[in-house]
Queue: 2 jobs
Job 1
Amino acid sequence: KIKTLPNIEQVKEKRHQHLAKILSVSYKKPIYVEKATFQYMYDAYGNTFLDAYNNIPHVGHSHPKVVKAGQEQMAKLNTNTRYLYEILNIYAEKLLSKFPPSLSKVFFVTSGSEANDLAIRMAKKHTGHSNVMVVEHGYHGHTQADIDISDYKFNNPKGQGQKKHVVKTIIPDTYRGRFTKNDGTAGKQYAEIAINDIKTSPNKIAAFIAEPIVGCGGQIPLAKGYLKPVYEAIRAQDGICISDEVQTGFGRLGDHFWGYEAENVIPDMVVIGKPIGNGHPMAAVICTDEIADSFNTGVEFFTSFGGNPVSCAIGLAVLEVIEEENLQENARIIGNYYKEEFALLQKKFPCIGDIRGSGLFLGFDIIKDNTTEADTELAHHIKNELRERNILISTDGPADNVLKTKPPLIFTKKDVDIVIQNTKIILENHYNEK
Ligand code: PMP
């Protein structure tokens, strides 16, 4: 039987018939994917794409060990946490072994949004305070409570605006921001601003939530030395500190398993998601005994799917693969190589303004030559040209001019070379045409 190839326009039309137009599709020329393995995605027309973008398939798309763990558990038992089953305890213990002893309780849920929503609810319950302090350009999820604390969404010209209970502090950005000396000086200066925001907040702050590297801000690492004084000031007024590690967790940053570790702080709560299940919908809130106890209000906490045996089996397999395949170390080595190679391109092409991030969570800031002004058009051109060359990368940031790359952690030097060589050709062509 001869397979008829799908017509992209028809597929798009059909999608619009049943799904709202608000669902976006990547690239000018969308990709009709059929399957994916490790760092490769395959479309319906026989093309292979190098995936330099997707961080959810953390240990590789369809990793056989993860797939097998899910299949076997699904064939045996899937139920909810109102029953006792061994794998919940095994997985919880294994996951918590990745945290310091003070972070001793885990709540399993099914998305990063749900986890942040729960974290904020628990923080309010624990502290009795109502305000939440957030970082400019941050994103924490799509529930109403999450949108309220996500500047990336509420601050959109078409967004809902900033709610009264939200205190927004400026992003401690050492590239385009007010303070740029990233040896701890800028961190301290930004922290002073945040501390002033805390002190002048009309109501006490229940929680301060931040991503270690602000993804939607354009992969912006919080300035060095920023978190510690801010955490101290939050705690001084009996608030709690939340690290949103949905993007940055599980060894992606190379040097550390969790992003907060780089700053020598210990949060009171950590929110994790995306790579936790390598694509299976899972997330979790990790917190202290005290915060978990405060939530023990007599009103049951229950979620139908959080912590189900299939998710636990998958989550456990992901942690085992990260260890067995030494993926945190791979993220460190390949991430450093990626940055070095991009720095060589930067010497040739003045449109590459900043190279930042850690491990395999990187951003390349595309600018109008030799300025710090964003060049959105060029960033989109590079992204779409890479797609034409079967390489997947994205853009983000307030001006959407930052090339965002966060591939599966199995990425190799050869894969980096492919991204670099093709970016080089695209930029050479761009400058030749100029
Ligand atoms: N926090 C951060 C930092 C995120 O990047 C995201 C998703 N992009 C979320 C939370 C929400 O997670 P989810 O999409 O699984 O609901």
Job 2
Amino acid sequence: RSTDPRISVIGTGYLGATHAVCMAELGFDVTGVDIDAGRIRRLSAGEVPFYEPGLEALLRKNLEAGRLTFTGSLAEAVERADVHFVCVGTPQQPDSGAADLRHVEAAVSGLITAGLGPGDLVVGKSTVPAGTATRLAAKLAAGVPGAELAWNPEFLREGFAVDDTLRPDRLVFGVAPEGTAERRLRAVYAQMIGDGVPVVVTDHTTAELVKVAANAFLATKISFINAMAEVCEATGGDVVELASALAHDARIGRRFLQAGIGFGGGCLPKDIRAFQARADELGVGRALTFLGEVDAVNIRARARAVALAREALGGSPANRTVGVLGAAFKPNSDDIRDSPALEVAEALRRAGAHVSVYDPAAAENARACHPNLCFADSVVGAVAGAEVVLVLTEWHEFRELDPAVLRPHVARPIVIDGRGALDPQRWRTAGWTYRALGRPRR
Ligand code: UDX
């Protein structure tokens, strides 16, 4: 199929590695590019450098089929491909919270100097502040007359990255009015479009905004229910029953109403801060002041879990033994970026507790960043002798725990369910004191 788009993917982090593999899976020739030589080596050897169910098998399959190669050279990508996806990171700047765009800028400049041609299409996938694509389009037009830029945000969730990429809820194409980008993106995604995935074609800025608005909405939904949990605590209400009653209203829906220690990860926290910073720059900061509250409720959820643990210990955590189940920011992930679980564990350790943590996938990453926490190899190892146990990531393995089996291993049977992962009745029947944010103390 010589008319098929030939694809390069710049940046092989979470987003880029998944996108490259999935594009190859669709049958295209794909070149993945990264400045990190170690990453290129591992991906070329068929090894995914992070935990993502199903991705490694697809990587190997497509490497073997000869459709997928990885390189450190942008010049090679420019030579081999004509559609270039930019999937580099946009981290949070430490002071302002604004997005750091240096990798995105470097990718586009790099493509220009590597010899991008007039017929080439550059497609941004990274999450960027509104206005970035328009600026990059001008830079590209000045550098390579005839080359085009489109914005095609990515909504994949960690843990479901392959499925979300191959079967997205929607495709958003932000394009300039009179170009070829829409036609070419339709060719890239022809199979999904044929399967009925809806396409929204819009301008650059709206496409950028869809992504940040979606994440802002999701974050708001989580903080809304966590705010209700605070009210439940003050009134004796039950946030889980409240959420399930709310969910019957189809306008509200049941998803993202799980109260607990709040959202973390590499996207939601940084994206709502970058969105506020951008709104401030644009002079519409007031429109997004509520996101500051969303952030505050979220941070408070972590502190409330720490307070519950203190209370369970009858005061100071100093020299007390605490078992923590979960380190990843969510289950089915080894990602510990801005992990609420680790922040709660660290706060208890700083207050003097002996904290032992178990996580089925994220322990290695957690150990590297939190050298003062102890890590156990099993649930039993983490809770041995504990005076309170906290469940802080809702891994399936923790949901399935038998409280009766666990009980003899702890010093005092008190469990704090930070994620609404456990059945309170079952734990209470087995002799445990069950506590959760926003739930009554029966
Ligand atoms: C998110 C968006 O869902 C995705 O569309 C976007 O592209 C990237 O950011 P991800 O960071 O992988 O994806 O995680 P997500 O599943 O959205 O969970 C984010 C955080 O919210 C996790 O810490 C999770 O534990 C928490 N969460 C989620 C809740 O606390 N309550 C909920 O009801 C749902």
